[in-house]
Amino acid sequence: MKMLSICVVLLLCALTTNADLILNGDFTDNGTYEQLPTTNMTYWTTWGASGWYQDDIDNDASVKFWFHDTGAYQDFSADPGQAYQYSVYARTPPGDQLAGMEGYLKAEFFDSVFNRLDAYVVDTFTTNDAVDTWVQLSGMATAPVGTVYGRIVLGLQDDGTADNEAGSLYFDDASVIPEPLSAGLLLIGGATAVAASRKRRVALPPR
What we know:
Elements: H1 2-17, E1 45-47, E2 51-54, E3 62-65, E4 71-77, E5 83-91, E6 101-110, E7 116-125, E8 135-142, E9 149-158, E10 169-178, H2 181-184, H3 192-196, E11 200-201
Antiparallel strand pairs: 1-4, 2-3, 3-10, 4-9, 5-8, 5-10, 6-7, 6-9, 8-11
């Protein structure tokens, strides 16, 4: 029985290792740190110029936004009726913490010619979240009928609480994992928060 349990754990680990549909989710593939859109992030599409691809935190690559006219997204192949677990880590720095804005993790789905079928924010980083701490944003999204492509979108939006927006937010370690692979992690005790599709606060960076 013990050997069977070990085999199940190893199988789940092997499956989930390659399950992430997002390429360069940790933003390490391009080593040219510059302001957007002067530089580019491999596999990601960006818009706007209020962002920086950089390694300010712990000399580790991430992307930083400071206004809601800028963001980044990546597309992946998706199947109708399939549920996907979206996740990203976000962090606002001391001395430049968010005000009047919130960070968002958004799911979008498209048909074969990129007509948008559905879109919704699965989680947000708000001004009530911890400062100088990596916070995991996560949520489940199910592809509607006709879906051929899915999309993960990262950015800032006005939260309606202040006239003058300020501050910045870093994003790192983005992922999209199809169910039931992420649900399978529950069997090895590693994803209780994922199953609940709720925000989980962590005291340490994701790596």
